[in-house]
Q: What sequence folds into this?
C-alpha cells in the first residue's frame, strides 16, 4: 500500500484515468493511512463511509469518461469548513455536536470537481493559534521529529491539515489563512501551502475568524498538486459579497513558465531577533536558485513590516469579537443552563471558548469599546493602509517577493511561554500578506540543523497566483526536497 | 492605557463571558502584555492616512429582490438546544 | 397659537424628536432571500443567514437600497453616494448574530426636511437628520411560559429605514402630525406600507422640556411606539412627569423608557443595558455601498407627485380649502381618485362630494376607497348631473346612496328610479296652480303680508313633484304667481 500513498495527486489522477488504480482503492488506502497515523491526532473525524461512497461515484464517472479535475482524489477538510451532515465545530467546545445542513462553497467546489472527502481535520479553536494547541480536541502532532523524539507542533491554525498531508494521511487538504495559518504549518510540516488573494475563494460556509483577512487555500505535497487543487477550490461566489469576479488563469500552464526575466524582490525588513540562522541561510540559497534560473533579484523595502503584527492583533481580534458573538447557546452548539439569559450567555461562552479564544475576544472587545476605538482600531486600519501601500509600491518594480515563511522551524508541543505575544511572533512573516490581501505560497526548501523542514514564502500581486506557482515550482525543483517525516503512513518507523 | 481588574470585569460583561473573579487579575496582566506590545503602533505617523477596512477593490454587489430562501424550519431548528412549538427557547427575559 | 405648557412655577417648552423605524417594502429581506411576509408560522421566513448559522454571509437587496434612496428624495434629503454598513454589537435573544447590521457614521441619506401644514393654515418645516438602512430584530415572546421566553426570527433581517428627525417638534400634536405626514409620504412613494398594527412603522420618541429660550433639557427616549395614540399619550405623560420632577427640584435621567399601553404611562427599562457600548465598526463582510449618480437621477425622475405638490395644486389651481386639500392628499389613492373624478367637473363640488358623502359612507360601511362600488368616473358623473341640472343636490344624495349600494352609475340610477329633475315650466306651472287652488286661505294670509308662508308653498310644490321639480324654477315661478 505504501506505493499508492507516495503518488502525488497528479500521478494519482493519471493512474485513475488509466484505471491502474480505482478511486475506492485510493480512498481505502488513505482511510487506512489516517488510522495508522491516528496518534498524530490530525483528524477529528474520519468519514470513511462518506469517502467510500464518494469514491465509488468517482469510479463511475471515470468509467463514463466524465472525470472532474480532482476526480477520485482524497481530500481532508479543516474543521473550520461547514460540511453538510458532518459535524463541523471549528475545534471548539461551543460548537460541539453542530451538524450543518449546508456545505461551504469551497468544499462544494472540491466535490464538484470529483474530490473525495476523507474527514475533518484538527485545527486551532476558531483558527486562533499558531501551533494547533488551542483545539478542543487536543493538539495535532507534526509527523516530523528532531533527533530527540520530542513531539512538535504542526503549526497552526491549519495544523491538522498540514500534519495529515505531510503524514500521507490525506493527499491534499483545505486550510484557511487569516495571519499565516496555511503558510506557517506548511513550512513546519515540509509541504506546500497557498493563501490565495483575498476574494479568490468564497468564505461562504467557513466559520469566520476575521472576515477581512480570512482566506481558504490548498495544502499539498507538491506545487503541481497545489495548483490543481487551487483550480478546483476558487470561484466567484455571489453569496459572499467580498468574493472577487476575477478570471482564474490556467494554473497548470504556470507551473512550467519558469522565472527567466522575472524581477523578484527581497525585502530587507524580513529579519527578526531569535530567527533560526538556518532560515537566513536558506533564504539566501533560495535567492541564488532563482538567480540561477534567470530571475533578477531586487533589494526592496517594506518599511512598515514590523507594525503588521501589532496591527493584525488589533484588527483580527476586533472582527473576531463580533464574529463570535453568535455563539450564544440559543440556536446551536453548547448551552450551559442558567436562570437569566445573560448568565446563560456568560456561562455558555465561558465554558465553550478556550483560553486563547477568550483572550482574543476580550482584546477585540476592548479595542472597539467606547474611548479606545480611535486609538486602537482606527490606528490599526491606518497602519494597514501603509502596509498595503508598501506592497503596492514594491510591486511597481518587482513581480514577486521572496521571504522566509517562518522565523524558525516547528517548536515542541506544550512549549511553555508566559507571554502570549511570543507565540504571536510565529506569524511575523506571514501576516503582512493578509493585511494587504495578497496571495502567498510556502514551499518546502530545506532542513535545519535538527533535520526539521523549513519553507520559503513567495508573495505576489493580487490575483497573480500563477506567478507564485511559477516561482514555487522553480524553488521546488532547485531544492529537490525529498526528505520525509518519520511518522508518516506507510513509513518505516 | 492599562487594564485593571475592573476593566476586565467590564469587558467580560460586554463580551458575555463570565470570568471568575480569581482569573481576572491574571487576564488583566495578559491583556496588558498584549496592549503594551500593540502600543508599538504609536511610533507610526498616520496623520492624513485613511483607515483601510477592506482590501477588496470592487463595490458592494447587490442581489435582486426575490424570495429565494426560507421555509426550512427543520434546518433552522435542527441544532437547537431548546425549542418549543417552532420557537427558540431561552431563559425568560425581563425588559 | 402657543404650545407652551403651564407648570406650577411657570411655562415650559416641550422639545420632541422622533426616530421612526419604517419597514422597507420589499419581497425579500435586506441581507437574505427569506420572505418579509407578515404572519407566517414561527421561524418559517428564516434563512440560515437570518439564523446566524456559522459561515453565513450577508448579500444586500438592491430594491431596499433603491427604496431608501426614493425615500431620501421624497424628504428632499441629501443622498450619500457612498455609505457604509456597520455592526452594532450587543447581545439579545432576538439578535442572532450578536450584532445588528446598521449604518452609523456614513448613512445612505443625510439631511432633509418635512413640511407640516398645521390646522390653522400655518406651515412648519421639521428637519430630518438622517435616514439609514438596518436590519430588524426578531420577536421575543415573554408570556408563553413562566420561566422562558420564546423567540421567532421571522422579522430578523427585514429591512428597516431608521428616519431620525431633528428635535424640531414642540407638542404631541405636532409629533403626531409629523408621523402622519411621514407615513403619507412613505405610502405615496411605496417605500413602506405604513401599517402600524403590523409594526411596519414604530417610533422612538425623544422628549425633553425647558424654559422658553433656554438650552435643551435632558431627554428621555421612549421606545417602540406603534400607534399615533400611544405616541401622543407617551409624550403627554413624559412632559407632565418631567415638569413635575424639575419643579420638585429633581433632575431628569437620560434613559430609555418603555410605554405601558394599558396604563398610558412610561417607565424606565429594568435591564438598564450596561452603559450602551455598541462597539460600532464597519462590517467586514460587506463593502462600502456605492450608488451611481445616474441611478439617483433615474429614481428621482420616476418619483410620483408627492402630497405637498398635489396639495399646493389643489388649493392654488382648483381653489380647494386647505382642509379639503389635506384630507384628499393624505393618501395617494385618494388623491388619484379625486384627480380622476374631478377632471372636467366642478373641482370644488367634487371635493365636497368626496370628503362629505363618499368618506362618510365609507366610514359607515367600513369599506376602503379601493374596495368600494363607486369609481372615480361614476362620482364625476354624479356631479356632472348636478352641474347640468339633471338632478338636484338633494336628489343626488339619493342617487349616491343607490350608487354606493349597487355600483351602478348615476345616469342609470336616475333613469331606473325616475329621479330626473322636472324642468318643464308647463308641468311646474300646473302643480303650482293646483297648490294655490287648494290653499286659498294660506294664499290670502301670504298676500296679507305673512311672507314666511312662501316656504310652505315651495314645500307643497316639491312634495307634489315627489321632489323632482327644479327648485330654482319652482321658486321663481311661485314668487311670480303669488306676488303677481
Ligand atoms: Mg432609537
Ligand atoms: Zn434603529
A:
Amino acid at each position: 500500500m505504501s506505493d499508492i500513498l507516495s503518488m502525488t495527486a497528479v500521478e494519482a489522477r493519471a493512474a485513475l484515468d488509466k484505471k491502474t488504480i480505482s478511486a475506492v482503492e485510493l480512498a481505502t488506502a488513505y482511510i487506512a493511512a489516517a488510522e495508522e497515523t491516528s496518534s498524530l491526532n490530525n483528524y477529528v473525524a474520519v468519514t470513511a463511509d462518506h469517502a467510500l461512497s464518494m469514491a465509488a461515484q468517482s469510479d463511475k464517472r471515470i468509467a463514463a469518461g466524465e472525470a472532474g479535475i480532482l476526480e477520485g482524489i482524497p481530500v481532508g477538510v479543516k474543521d473550520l469548513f461547514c460540511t453538510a451532515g458532518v459535524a463541523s465545530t471549528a475545534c471548539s467546545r461551543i460548537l460541539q455536536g453542530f451538524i450543518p445542513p449546508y456545505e461551504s462553497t469551497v468544499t462544494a467546489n472540491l466535490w464538484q470537481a470529483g474530490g473525495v472527502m476523507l474527514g475533518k481535520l484538527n485545527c486551532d479553536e476558531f483558527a486562533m493559534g499558531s501551533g494547533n494547541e488551542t483545539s478542543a480536541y487536543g493538539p495535532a502532532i507534526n509527523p516530523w521529529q528532531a533527533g530527540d523524539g520530542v513531539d512538535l507542533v504542526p503549526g497552526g491554525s491549519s495544523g491538522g491539515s498540514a500534519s495529515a498531508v505531510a503524514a500521507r494521511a490525506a493527499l491534499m487538504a483545505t486550510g484557511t489563512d487569516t495571519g499565516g495559518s496555511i503558510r506557517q504549518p506548511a513550512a513546519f510540516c515540509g509541504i506546500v501551502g497557498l493563501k490565495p488573494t483575498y476574494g479568490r475563494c468564497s468564505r461562504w460556509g467557513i466559520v469566520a475568524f476575521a472576515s477581512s483577512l480570512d482566506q481558504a487555500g490548498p495544502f499539498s505535497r507538491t506545487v503541481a498538486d497545489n495548483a490543481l487543487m487551487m483550480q478546483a477550490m476558487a470561484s466567484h461566489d455571489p453569496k459572499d459579497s467580498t468574493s472577487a469576479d476575477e478570471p482564474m488563469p490556467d494554473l497548470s500552464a504556470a507551473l512550467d513558465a519558469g522565472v527567466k526575466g522575472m524581477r523578484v524582490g527581497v525585502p530587507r525588513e524580513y529579519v527578526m531577533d531569535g530567527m533560526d540562522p538556518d532560515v537566513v541561510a536558506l533564504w539566501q540559497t533560495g535567492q541564488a536558485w532563482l538567480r540561477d534560473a534567470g530571475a533578477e533579484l531586487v533589494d526592496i523595502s517594506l518599511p512598515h513590516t514590523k507594525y503588521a503584527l501589532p496591527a493584525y492583533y488589533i484588527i483580527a481580534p476586533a472582527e473576531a469579537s463580533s464574529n463570535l458573538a453568535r455563539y450564544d447557546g440559543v440556536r446551536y452548539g453548547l448551552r450551559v443552563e442558567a436562570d437569566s439569559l445573560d448568565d446563560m450567555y456568560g456561562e455558555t461562552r465561558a465554558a465553550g471558548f478556550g483560553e486563547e479564544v477568550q483572550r482574543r475576544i476580550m482584546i477585540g472587545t476592548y479595542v472597539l469599546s467606547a474611548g479606545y476605538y480611535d486609538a486602537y482600531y482606527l490606528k490599526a486600519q491606518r497602519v494597514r493602509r501603509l502596509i498595503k501601500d508598501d506592497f503596492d509600491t514594491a510591486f511597481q518594480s518587482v513581480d514577486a517577493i521572496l521571504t522566509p515563511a517562518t522565523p524558525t522551524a516547528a517548536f515542541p508541543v506544550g512549549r511553555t511561554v508566559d507571554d502570549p505575544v511570543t507565540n504571536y511572533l510565529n506569524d511575523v512573516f506571514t501576516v503582512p500578506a493578509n493585511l494587504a490581501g495578497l496571495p502567498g505560497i510556502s514551499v518546502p526548501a530545506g532542513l535545519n540543523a535538527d533535520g526539521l523542514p523549513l519553507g520559503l514564502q513567495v508573495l505576489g500581486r493580487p490575483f497573480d497566483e500563477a506567478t507564485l506557482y511559477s516561482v514555487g515550482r522553480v524553488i521546488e525543483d532547485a531544492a529537490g526536497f525529498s526528505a520525509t517525516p518519520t511518522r508518516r503512513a506507510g513509513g518505516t518507523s | 492605557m492599562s487594564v485593571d481588574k475592573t476593566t476586565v470585569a467590564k469587558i467580560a460583561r460586554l463580551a458575555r463571558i463570565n470570568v471568575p473573579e480569581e482569573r481576572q487579575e491574571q487576564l488583566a496582566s495578559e491583556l496588558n502584555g498584549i496592549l503594551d506590545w500593540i502600543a508599538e503602533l504609536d511610533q507610526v505617523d498616520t496623520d492624513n492616512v485613511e483607515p483601510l477596512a477592506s482590501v477588496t477593490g470592487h463595490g458592494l454587489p447587490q442581489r435582486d429582490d426575490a424570495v429565494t430562501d426560507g421555509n426550512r424550519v427543520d434546518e433552522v431548528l435542527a441544532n437547537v438546544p431548546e425549542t418549543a412549538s417552532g420557537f427558540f427557547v431561552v431563559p425568560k427575559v425581563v425588559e | 397659537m402657543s404650545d407652551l405648557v403651564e407648570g406650577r412655577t411657570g411655562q415650559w417648552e416641550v422639545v420632541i424628536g422622533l426616530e421612526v423605524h419604517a419597514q422597507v417594502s420589499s419581497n425579500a429581506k435586506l441581507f437574505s432571500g427569506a420572505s418579509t411576509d407578515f404572519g407566517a408560522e414561527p421561524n418559517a421566513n428564516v434563512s440560515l443567514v437570518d439564523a446566524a448559522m456559522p459561515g453565513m454571509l450577508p448579500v444586500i437587496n438592491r430594491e431596499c437600497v433603491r427604496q431608501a434612496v426614493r425615500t431620501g428624495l421624497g424628504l428632499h434629503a441629501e443622498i450619500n453616494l457612498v455609505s457604509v454598513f456597520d455592526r452594532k454589537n450587543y447581545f439579545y435573544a432576538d439578535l442572532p448574530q450578536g450584532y445588528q447590521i446598521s449604518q452609523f457614521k456614513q448613512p445612505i441619506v443625510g439631511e432633509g426636511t418635512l413640511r407640516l401644514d398645521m390646522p390653522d393654515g400655518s406651515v412648519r418645516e421639521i428637519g430630518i437628520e438622517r435616514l439609514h438602512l438596518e436590519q430588524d430584530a426578531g420577536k421575543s415572546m415573554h408570556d408563553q411560559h413562566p420561566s422562558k421566553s420564546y423567540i421567532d426570527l421571522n422579522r430578523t433581517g427585514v429591512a428597516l429605514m431608521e428616519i431620525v428627525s431633528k428635535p424640531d417638534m414642540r407638542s404631541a400634536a405636532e409629533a403626531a402630525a409629523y408621523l402622519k405626514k411621514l407615513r403619507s409620504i412613505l405610502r405615496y412613494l411605496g417605500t413602506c406600507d405604513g401599517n402600524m398594527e403590523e409594526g411596519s412603522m414604530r417610533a422612538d420618541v425623544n422628549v425633553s422640556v425647558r424654559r422658553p429660550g433656554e438650552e435643551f433639557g435632558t431627554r428621555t427616549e421612549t421606545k417602540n411606539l406603534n400607534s399615533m395614540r400611544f405616541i401622543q399619550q407617551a409624550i403627554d405623560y413624559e412632559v407632565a412627569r418631567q415638569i413635575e420632577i424639575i419643579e420638585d427640584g429633581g433632575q431628569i435621567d437620560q434613559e430609555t423608557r418603555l410605554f405601558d399601553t394599558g396604563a398610558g404611562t412610561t417607565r424606565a427599562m429594568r435591564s438598564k443595558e450596561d452603559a450602551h457600548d455598541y462597539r460600532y465598526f464597519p462590517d467586514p463582510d460587506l463593502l462600502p455601498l456605492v450608488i451611481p449618480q445616474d441611478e439617483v437621477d433615474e429614481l428621482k425622475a420616476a418619483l410620483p407627485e408627492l402630497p405637498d405638490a398635489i396639495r399646493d395644486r389643489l388649493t392654488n389651481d382648483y381653489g380647494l380649502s386647505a382642509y379639503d386639500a389635506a384630507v384628499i392628499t393624505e393618501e395617494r389613492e385618494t388623491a388619484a381618485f379625486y384627480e380622476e373624478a374631478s377632471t372636467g367637473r366642478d373641482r370644488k363640488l367634487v371635493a365636497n362630494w368626496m370628503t362629505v358623502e363618499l368618506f362618510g359612507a365609507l366610514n359607515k360601511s367600513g369599506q376602503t376607497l379601493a374596495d368600494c362600488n363607486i369609481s372615480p368616473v361614476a362620482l364625476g358623473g354624479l356631479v356632472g348631473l348636478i352641474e347640468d341640472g339633471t338632478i338636484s343636490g338633494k336628489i343626488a344624495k339619493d342617487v349616491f346612496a343607490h350608487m354606493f349600494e349597487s355600483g351602478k352609475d348615476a345616469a342609470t340610477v336616475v333613469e331606473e328610479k325616475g329621479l330626473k329633475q322636472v324642468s318643464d315650466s308647463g308641468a311646474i306651472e300646473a302643480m303650482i296652480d293646483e297648490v294655490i287652488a287648494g290653499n286659498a286661505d294660506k294664499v290670502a294670509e301670504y298676500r296679507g303680508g305673512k311672507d314666511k308662508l312662501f316656504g310652505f308653498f315651495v314645500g307643497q310644490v316639491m312634495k307634489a313633484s315627489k321632489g323632482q321639480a327644479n327648485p330654482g324654477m319652482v321658486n321663481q315661478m311661485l314668487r311670480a304667481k303669488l306676488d303677481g
